[in-house]
Amino acid sequence: MSFTLHENTYRGRELLQKLANCRVTICGAGALGANLVEQLARCGATGISCIDRDRLEEQNLATQPYGRSELGGYKATLLSAQIYRSLGLEVKAVAKELTSDTAVRLLRGSQLVVDCLDNRAGRLCVQQACRQLELPLLHSGVNGDYAEVVWDPVYTVPSGAGEDVCDYPLARNLVTLTVASMAEVILKWLETGECQNLSLTLRDFAIRSWTE
């Protein structure tokens, strides 16, 4: 893939090959998930699946890589089509809800699962399914000025208080910073096996790291 020339020069062929061969399932095609799909694809990932039940709404346009003409479409399907048009890569789109009945089936066969969901029920289902299947699971989330990128089993699913509120504060720059950090954490894991956890705060532009 000629478009990965710069990444290949910087990362090295061995790491880029590991990324290309990894079957990554990203749960959620919203602000974090959709941008992470694009980020990993442009780095050379070719085994991406994306699961999201939601349709695109106008309020999503500021932080998610979709267009106004796509309003009403399923996010996962729109994202897959966008990546194919841009890069010629196929992203498997699954426009289904992750529940206790579907999660194991939908996640089976993954080599890495990334939780980019925005609700407690979905996060719990993904966590339980990955633990049952013994799959590595990376969680991410944003809340106001704060974001975190944390591997399971260190991660604790937050309480359901106030979840699914669409008018919570969400800065595009925090999304961008978090997505770039998630991609770096994934690449480090592929290269060394290290599970690095991060917390990020936008106002002081701080990224703090710790490992298991």
Q: What is the strand tally? A: 8
How much is the average pLDDT?
A: 93
**SSE pattern, N- to C-terminal:** HHEHEHEHEHEEHEE
Over the alpha carbons, how many angstroms does the gyration radius reach?
16 Å
Largest sheet: 8 strands, mixed
Number of domains: 1
Task: Give a structural overview.
- The chain has one domain: Rossmann fold, CATH 3.40.50.720.
- Strand 7 and strand 8 (206-211) form a beta hairpin.
- It has 212 residues and is an alpha/beta fold.
- It is 39% helix and 19% strand.
- It is globular, with a radius of gyration of 16 Å.
- Strands 3-2-1-4-5-6-7-8 form an eight-stranded mixed beta sheet, with helices on both faces.
- Helix 1 (5-11) packs across helix 2.
Brief write-up:
The chain is of the alpha/beta class. The chain has helices spanning 5-11, 13-21, 31-43, 75-87, 103-107, 120-133, 172-192; strands at 24-27, 48-51, 92-94, 112-115, 137-143, 146-151, 196-201, 206-211. It has one domain (2-211): Rossmann fold (3-Layer(aba) Sandwich).
Question: Which labels suit this protein?
Answer:
212 residues, alpha/beta, Rossmann fold, 19% strand
